[in-house]
Amino acid sequence: MIKRKERANAVLTELARLNPQPQTELNFETPWQLLVAVVLSAQSTDKQVNKVTTLLFAKYPTPESMASLTPDELAEEIRNVGLFRTKSKHLVATANALVNEYNGNVPQSLAQLESLPGVGRKTANVVLSTAFDIPALAVDTHVFRVANRLGLAKAKTPEETERQLVKAIPKKLWSKAHHWLILHGRYTCTARKPKCPACPVNSYCLHYHTK
Predict the structure, then answer these.
(1) Which residues are catalytic?
(2) Is the pTM of the predicted complex or chain greater than 0.70?
(3) What three-state secondary structure class fits 205?
(4) Each residue of 158-189: pLDDT tens digit?
(5) DSSP 3-state of 193
(6) What residue ranges define each of the domains in the chain, with the CATH number in brackets?
């Protein structure tokens, strides 16, 4: 059996060949807008989030403008995404925190981002890597599933999956690997009925060869 680093290298080399410059499918123009979009994406699709943020960012493009809202007012703007009431409370609180503590800027450290209401490790890592080009490897449900199916990790939690992935993948590739694995999970290695026979990396996949 090939070692985890060798498997990761083979898988990512193939995914890179198919998609050399992977990008997030969330629409945003600023780090703040990316932060909002990622918070909204929990239990919602990127496509649905983009529909909501197109109107939302036209009205409230900055932390200052969103901080002027009440949670109930924001809830009406984002009601077409899952858990919209909880998210509205978190986003208004986060907007106020940025205005009051960071001069309206999104911080660029993991600890500071995780201190914001409703911002967990996954969201913080996405913002660091995508908005600021700081090496980070966010593990969402897609990355967790794909990494463990392929054999790039053997873990029961997203946190442990992240720890194993950053050991197996060169730091310079963390950000791209996040996108490669998400997109692979979204369109090929789906939660239900994964498209295993058509998968371009099935020759390296533990799940495919043991099911």
Answers:
(1) 122, 140
(2) yes
(3) coil
(4) 999 999 999 999 999 999 999 999 999 999 99
(5) coil
(6) 4-23+137-210 (1.10.1670.10), 31-132 (1.10.340.30)
